[in-house]
Design goal:
single chain; 0% strand; mainly alpha; 213 residues
């Protein structure tokens, strides 16, 4: 029961900030972008909530420090994921399914790559599951390391700054938004998975067309 309570806490952005402050946020951002088991963590809604709570002084940390530390965690996380993928190579696709890993997640990420090309490293930051597996897949297919660093830094900066400052700006303008944080988090999750659903639907339609021809 304690494990389930802990997992539930890790899915609640407000609870995460209350439990561990900026340090726990940084750890979660690193885990979601650098470890294959971090795909279920609430990255987008967490970043927005961090910005909102900074504006409301629930998280009494200067916004520039928040942006710098979380961006660094996102960059380092992707680099760890990239080199893990490079080390594992094709063995990654032979890894058996478990509770925390499904090969379908890699296939969904591959489909996203096929749709968006190298820019998937940047765009994937805003899409759950893809955010976790994009750097790993980039490493597995031997994506050039120097080019990956460029896309990694760009994507991390855009992802963190846009979401944290969105929460910060709205928190400064509308302090009463805190009482609707759960609805806002759900809305962010819904919007963030739309690109993945769109890619999945198009791939499914393409497979149907091929099977009928």
């Amino acid at each position: 029961m304690e494990i389930f309570k802990l997992l539930h806490s890790l899915l609640d952005p407000e609870r995460i900030i209350q439990l561990g402050g900026l340090l726990l946020v940084v750890a979660i951002v690193f885990a979601e972008t650098g470890l294959m088991i971090g795909f279920f963590l609430p990255g987008d809604s967490l970043l927005f909530t961090v910005g909102l709570f900074c504006a409301l002084q629930v998280l009494p940390v200067p916004i520039l420090i928040v942006l710098a530390t979380i961006t660094a965690a996102a960059i380092i996380g992707d680099q760890v994921g990239y080199w893990s993928g490079r080390l594992l190579g094709q063995k990654l696709f032979e890894k058996p399914d478990s509770r925390l890993f499904k090969r379908k997640y890699l296939e969904q990420t591959r489909a996203f790559y096929q749709r968006w090309g190298a820019s998937a490293i940047i765009l994937g930051r805003f899409v759950p599951i893809v955010r976790t597996f994009a750097p790993i897949l980039a490493g597995a297919v031997q994506f050039p390391p120097k080019t990956f660093v460029l896309y990694n830094v760009s994507g991390a900066f855009l992802w963190v700054v846009s979401l944290v400052l969105a929460g910060y700006g709205l928190g400064r303008a509308f302090p009463w938004l805190r009482q609707y944080i759960e609805l806002i988090a759900l809305g962010i999750v819904f919007l963030s998975v739309l690109p993945l659903l769109r890619t999945w639907w198009k791939e499914r339609q393409r497979q149907k067309t091929l099977s009928m021809s």
